[in-house]
Each structure stands twice: as C-alpha cells, then as structure tokens.
Write a structure and sequence with these properties.
It is a single chain. The chain is 38% helix and 24% strand. Strands 3-4-2-5-6-1-10 form a seven-stranded mixed sheet, with helices on both faces. Strands 7-8-9 form a three-stranded antiparallel sheet. The chain has two domains: 163 residues, Leucine Aminopeptidase, subunit E, domain 1; 45 residues, no CATH class. Helix 3 crosses helix 4 and helix 4 crosses helix 5. The chain starts with a strand and ends with a strand. The longest helix has 28 residues. Helix 4 links the parallel strand 5 and strand 6. It is α/β, with parallel strands linked by helices.
Length: 234
C-alpha cells in the first residue's frame, strides 16, 4: 500500500529517495522549482543532464539523474505540457506522473516527493492540474511506499488533500459495490478512529464476524483516510 501525503514545504530539502523536477524539453534550468533544484544540487546536476539527455526530453516523458548535493539520491526530471489547451494536454500531464512512478520502480525507490506539476511553471490553474495529479498518483500501480506532494502554500496543499480524499472515498465505495456483486451481502463500511489518530475506514463482513468469538475481530481490509501520514491508496 502506498501512503500519499500533501505538505507545504521546500522540495529541495526533502529527505526522500527521489524528488521530481518539472523541467523543459531542453532540460536546461528555467525558473521556479526547476531553478531551485539545480541551485541546491550544484553544477554537477546540469553536467549529468547534458551527458545523459543530449537531445532533452519529450513532453509527458521523464528521465533520472543523481541528486548531487541534495538529500535525495535521485532527481526524476519530467516535462509537462504548457497550459490546459486540450484533452491531449491532460493526458500528457498525467503521463508525467505515470512515467515518474515507472522510473521510481525501476530504480527501487521507496519514497518520492512531487511538486504540483503544471501550476506556475506551465501555466495550469490549480483546479485543472491538481485533480489530474491526485487521480493519477492514486490510480497508477507502483511499488513506492510513500509519495509526498510538496505544495508551495496552504491553499494548494488543501486543494490537493481535498482531491485525494474525494478520490479515496469513491474508490472505497466502488470496492464495496464489487464485493456485493460477488455475494458478500453482509459487507458494510464502518468509520472510526484509527490507532495512530485520525480516521480510518474498514470494510467488514458482518455475517462472518457473527461467527467469531467475542475476543476476535475480523477485518477484510482496512482503508485509512485523514491519518497523520496522509491518504492511503485504496
């Protein structure tokens, strides 16, 4: 299970295996997050970029380099589309996230920090870019254990969390429907406080629970929302 969290912070200081850099097709330092990452990593980052990617990257694609002076061991560079001009733009933005996760799996990365790709650097409004990020990160299969979304301010962070929570609830309800279709008529959704604080969601087979001794509790699967770690993929 992959835990996904959203926080306000500086992506260049995150103690994770990899951070994601929203760059341009030529992969030369621009402004914003791209410039901040290059400045923090040192000149060796650009040297490796030039060596590994002499012709740059296509929009929607991604590639990795080492992290230089960063706490992160790797930097995964990706190129987002400029502004949401069409359905194709949305598909390319989603591709950025999927490709980053694919590369993370290839490198054996367990923790990764993403910026909100598209907002500011590529001219996307938050209400267009953020739902794509939340949906893609929650739906894309990956072996990464923790995904952090680093927001520039509390407004962006809260928008990200709202999208993650809405998506998690939808997937949970879809799961209940599938179980009902498979004959688990006693399945119910139960909400309560989790052991580490915050909320948790459980799917339990009520009929099966009735057959157990009072000292035992059967949980078919547990889904946590609003925990201290963020939102878990369901």
């Amino acid at each position: 299970m992959t835990a996904i969290s959203a926080v306000v912070g500086d992506i260049t200081t995150q103690d994770v295996d990899a951070i994601v850099n929203p760059t341009n097709t030529e992969m030369r330092p621009g402004g914003g997050v791209d410039r901040a990452i290059h400045d923090a990593a040192g000149p060796g980052l650009l040297e490796e970029v030039r060596s590994r990617f002499p012709t740059g990257l296509a929009v929607g694609d991604a590639g990795w380099t080492h992290g230089g002076r960063l706490a992160a061991r790797y930097v995964i560079h990706t190129v987002g589309p400029l502004q949401p001009t069409s359905k194709k733009s949305e598909q390319l933005l989603a591709s950025c996230y999927r490709r980053c996760l694919q590369i993370a799996d290839e490198l054996g990365i367990q923790t990764i920090a993403f910026p909100v790709i598209g907002v500011w650097s590529y001219g996307w409004p938050g209400n267009k870019a953020i739902p794509i990020e939340a949906r893609t990160l929650m739906e894309s299969p990956s072996s990464v254990s923790r995904i952090m979304i680093i927001a520039s301010d509390e407004v962006i962070r809260d928008q990200v969390l709202a999208c993650l929570i809405n998506k998690a609830w939808l997937r949970l309800l879809q799961g209940v429907r599938v179980l009902h279709e498979r004959g688990f008529e006693g399945v119910r959704v139960w909400a309560g406080f989790g052991p580490v604080g915050g909320w948790r969601i459980q799917i339990t087979d009520v009929d099966y629970m009735k057959k157990l001794p009072d000292s035992e509790i059967y949980i078919a699967r547990e889904y946590r929302l609003f925990t201290n770690e963020g939102v878990a993929r369901v």
